[in-house]
UniProtKB/TrEMBL annotation:
Descriptive protein name: SSD domain-containing protein
Chief subcellular location: membrane
Keywords: Cell membrane, Membrane, Transmembrane, Transmembrane helix
Membrane topology: Multi-pass membrane protein
The UniProt record lists the keyword Nucleotide-binding: no
SSD domain boundaries: 193-327
SUPFAM superfamilies on file: Multidrug efflux transporter AcrB transmembrane domain
Transmembrane segments: 179-197, 202-222, 228-249, 276-298, 304-329, 359-379, 491-511, 523-542, 554-575, 611-630, 636-656
Organism: Dactylosporangium darangshiense
InterPro entries, per database record: MMPL_dom, Mycobact_MmpL, SSD
Annotated compartments: Cell membrane
């Protein structure tokens, strides 16, 4: 790292010019990115995906989207056979590509409510081909209203309509969210640095984000990239780039406070903090491998985009930032002229207290995380329930759902199952809730389930329908709910193996970095515990509604969007490890200098406590900005990321990490000789650990103390 630092400073002019060109190019092209991103959530090579493609090939609509559901309330029950009602539902086909299924077209009484005067239909729309969905609801309402008999009302609902919040027009965009996050970060940085140096991490973040946008724009030319990537690049890039800059700048100030000046202070900071930045960036990228290897295009694109964020941020931090510090750093210390105090009294006192009461600290932290992790065991994956969405939906969509449920129509009709069968094939007698559309060559059966597809009961209905049609030659079961049912298995089927591989790679990487298998293993296990606790927060806040209604005016969803936990894992696994790396790397450094575990804990936490807290607060504020996005799914993801970072930086790193390091004593620093040779680790032989419990046996090995 020192050699790399010297290389960068020898070519400082070229480094600045290169990043300046990328900054300008990224800024000039950022406006084009949004229009090139995909809104497609395809899951290829699943049975439902093949069925949906077959349905779209025959009919050109439905399959991969939920239908719109116009709900008509007539002035009296005798009107369901009124020809005007049939004309009204026919008028719902406002475009040639729409398909309308209703009581008028099928004669199926399941389209009529128990009150005899509430009638609904299903309007299947064509696929959006990766573009935002078209808004048909207003046009359908206007067309049907003109044809309905006097006194009748119509409201268009549907799961997608209910998911469109009433205040979409006031929702924030990527630029606004980034500016909100940047403002919060600036306030924290001003508090930390008290000088113009607070602007330096923001500059590094701007270069990192715009450069990543430029690369993502290039990727859109060869592959579909999900629209989610723009949010993650902007806000996670903001937090990560500032975190890395904060670590390096803080260490540079510390080296200057110890009397090192000029380029030497930069080299020394790069040798320690720069190494931690590199390790952290690689760890974040490793976590995102879980998304890249999945056979799901939109998740894979999020994985690629997510991996670019830390890698570009690391590159900017380790090249541009050293040049800025070496050339303009001392002058940017204005107006703060006092010498940097490397440790904080409050953090030193806190660390000493945790060491003294290590059993109590560990028990308290484990109790908090354990209770939240226990809540996570009740997580249910699927779409938010329609009743939960209605609270923040457009008034017409909410009114349509209310008309349906008041008439005794089950909400499962919002998520119908579509079954494509050859013409002449007899459907099984066990499936009787369907309407039939029969163009030449095929029949399309529209099954009306009682329960919504995302619920546990809805998933059981999907399984029963599939079993019922298994013996019908050529039958293919599709629909968006069935696709999500298959997608859930496709995403989480290989997850245990992915988790094991990622954990193993991280364990090897951290063992080499910390020169300790115990510290590495503890870091991985605590990270997984922190992740489980963040899932518990999701269950409590969103699934059970303890906070979603108060904060976002969204009632309990009853389920968590099926892709959110996996995506949260991919990002949090590495982001949470940042603080573990920052703290343990400094503890390892202090132990190598003093050969004393107690001193290593107290000094390590005293020197990194304010840094970790500030970095976590900045990243948390970025996720608060992300939560202002209008999409409920993005809000849920932001909650998972924000909760994970907050728990990790407070409960885990401030309590559990120092407590467990203190409990394990000299075992923290032991490294078997065979492991040192296999990992090519240059080992140290510090003196005996003076403060450790003498009852602990002496440990052998290159990095042990005996």
């Amino acid at each position: 790292m020192t050699r790399f630092s010297r290389f960068v400073l020898r070519h400082r002019t070229a480094v600045v010019l290169a990043w300046l060109v990328l900054l300008v190019a990224g800024g000039a092209s950022a406006g084009r990115l949004s229009g090139r991103l995909s809104h497609d959530f395809a899951f290829p090579d699943t049975a439902a995906d093949r069925a949906n493609h077959a349905i779209l090939a025959e009919y050109g609509n439905g399959a991969g989207t939920y239908p719109l559901v116009p709900v008509v309330v007539l002035p009296g029950p005798a009107g369901v056979d009124d020809p005007a009602l049939g004309r009204a539902f026919a008028a719902a086909a406002v475009d040639p590509g729409l398909r309308v299924v209703s009581y008028a077209s099928t004669g199926d009484r399941r389209f009529v409510g128990a009150d005899g005067r509430t009638v609904f239909g299903l309007v299947f729309t064509p696929p959006t081909r990766g573009a935002p969905p078209r808004d048909y609801a207003a046009r359908i309402t206007a067309a049907m209203s003109r044809a309905l008999p006097p006194g009748a009302t119509v409201n268009v609902t549907g799961l997608d309509e209910l998911s469109t919040v009433d205040n979409t027009g006031s929702g924030t965009g990527v630029l606004t969210e980034t500016l909100i996050g940047a403002l919060g970060a600036l306030l924290v940085l001003v508090f930390v640095f008290g000088s113009l140096l607070a602007l330096v991490p923001l500059l590094v973040a701007a270069v990192s984000i715009l450069t990543t946008f430029l690369i993502v724009l290039g990727l859109t030319g060869i592959s579909d990239v999900s629209f989610i990537v723009q949010f993650l690049v902007a806000l996670i890039g903001l937090g990560v780039a500032i975190d890395y800059s904060l670590l390096l700048v803080t260490r540079w100030r510390e080296e200057r406070a110890q009397g090192h000046t000029g380029d030497e202070a930069v080299h020394r900071a790069m040798a320690s903090a720069g190494r931690a930045v590199l390790l952290s960036g690689v760890t974040v990228a490793i976590g995102l491998v879980a998304l890249v290897v999945l056979p799901v295009p939109f998740m894979r694109s999020v994985g690629y985009g997510g991996m670019l964020v830390p890698l570009v941020s690391v590159l900017v931090t380790l090249t541009l930032l050293p040049v800025l510090l070496a050339t303009a750093g001392p002058r940017m210390e204005w107006p703060r002229r006092t010498r940097e105090r490397p440790t904080g009294r409050a953090w030193r006192a806190w660390a000493s207290g945790v060491v003294r009461h290590r059993w109590l600290a560990a028990a308290a932290a484990l109790a908090i995380l354990g209770l939240l992790a226990a809540a996570a065991t009740g997580i249910r994956l699927g779409d938010a329930e329609s009743g939960a969405l209605a609270g923040s939906a457009r008034p017409a969509a909410a009114a349509g759902l209310r008309d349906l449920t008041d008439a005794g129509v089950p909400s499962g009709v919002l998520t119908p199952i579509e079954v494509l069968v050859p013409e002449g094939a007899r459907p099984p007698s066990t499936v009787d809730a369907y309407a039939t559309v029969a163009p030449a060559g095929t029949r399309l059966l529209v099954v009306l389930p009682r329960h919504e597809a995302g619920s546990d009961a809805g998933k059981e209905e999907i399984a029963r329908v599939r079993d019922a049609f298994r013996d019908v030659p050529g039958a293919q079961v599709g629909g968006l709910g069935v696709l999500q049912y298959d997608a859930e298995h496709a995403l989480y089927g290989p997850f245990p193996l992915l988790l094991a591989l990622i954990g193993l790679v991280t364990l090897v990487l951290l063992t080499r970095a910390f020169r300790s298998p115990l510290l590495a293993l503890k870091a991985v296990l605590l990270n997984l515990l922190s992740l489980a606790a963040s899932y518990g927060v999701l269950v409590l806040v969103w699934q059970d509604g303890h906070g979603s209604d108060a904060i976002w005016n969204v009632p309990a969803t009853g389920a968590i969007t099926f892709w959110v936990p996996l995506m949260a894992f991919a990002f949090l696994y590495g982001l949470s490890m940042d603080y573990e790396v920052f703290i343990l790397a400094r503890m390892r450094e202090e132990y190598d200098a003093t050969a004393d575990t107690r001193t290593a804990i107290v000094e390590g936490l005293a020197r990194t406590g304010r840094l970790v807290t500030s970095a976590a607060l900045i990243l948390f504020l970025a996720f608060v900005s992300l939560a202002t996005a209008p999409s409920p799914d993005i809000k849920i993801l932001a909650t998972a990321l924000g909760a994970g970072i907050l728990l990790d930086a407070t409960v885990v790193r401030s309590l559990l990490v120092p407590a467990t390091v203190s409990l394990f004593g000299r075992w923290n620093w032991w490294l078997p000789g065979w492991a040192a040779r296999a990992l090519r680790i240059d080992t140290l032989r510090p003196d005996a650990d003076r403060d450790d419990d003498p009852s602990v046996p002496a440990l052998s090995g290159p990095a042990g103390s005996g």
